[in-house]
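Model: Ready when you are.
Researcher: Fold this.
Model:
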Amino acid sequence: MTRLLRVLVVLILFELGMLLIFLPWSSQWEHNYFLSRYPDLIRILLHPSMRGLISGLGVLDIIVAVSFLRRPADNPVQQ
């Protein structure tokens, strides 16, 4: 994986992780298109367990981003 691609993947994973950690607990989560369009989802998406599950996915994204940073770069075999 090239250095630029590796940096892009780490940045995207980190940003997505931060978004998934904080978004379920914000006011935007409670007032969105899907909840107004499908009121049956209110009980599911606003439940604290579901919010915690989504935040947990954000934590996993950040862990994967850190593991990409810690893993040595793939060096092609030199001939």
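Researcher: Now this one.
Model:
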Amino acid sequence: MFSENSKVKCPICGEWSSEYLFSNNKYNPFADTHFTHYSCTSSINHNLYSIMKCTNCDIAFQTQKPDEKELSQLYGNVVDNLYLQEEKGRYKTFNNAVKNLNKLCPEKGKLLEIGSYTGIFLEIAKNNQWHAEGVELSSWARNIAASRNISLYSSLDDSILNKVNHFDSIIMWDVIEHLTHPQDILKKAHKLLKPGGILGVSTIIIDSISASVLKKYYPFYLDMHLIYFTKRSLINILKNTGFEIIEFKRHKRYVSISYILSKFSILKNINKITFLRKILSNIHFFCSFGVRDIYARKI
């Protein structure tokens, strides 16, 4: 069950040397309770719980979090129609991601995406001659993916975990910050990859300029984000799970102006003007806003 303690052990290194990064944000005026907190497009800056940072390994983590069973249920029940309204931007984002992966793996091969959502990345990867498969907890998202002829596993079960040294690449876009123990899934990815296989990860970096300036108002401090990395701690956890770093770069995420406006309560009324919303929905720009892509090779 959910619980919050005044003294919390670091979920990564196990030390008790943590200090508060931020106390809870429940009085944040930009919080919007109308969105499902565990959907991909969950409302901006809606973290209700305190965040601590380990002084030993540099990992930050939410003090109050669901257990593994609750987490699976929460993501399994996610419905996120706003995500579908932003598909143009998603396709641009994942086209760029596939191009980057192709440069690192020109021979392509077998690919596994963990956290596939509606299957856009896999669709593009398949069109680029990857033999691609994926895993997604949300039954709603799997149904959308199926309409694109993308069949997804509902969990990372033995049918995948038995494929030892099988994949040329494993991708986890915006996944590891949602996990209570991200090192566990990195160890599984290492086992599933062929020797020399490529792991691609994107996640929030809290010592980025954006996060450092905005502090507790950084928009990616969300209920569903349980773990937060600095550049150093992300590199270290990858090294400790058997990977060598190839690239560490700014993430390019394409979003519409309309989508950005929808994330702020004080600006939402602009989106209610139909003709303006249609115009702004077709104007895309890319941003990183403290999100980074990291590519690593299995040692």
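Researcher: Key takeaway?
Model: The chain has one domain: 18-298.
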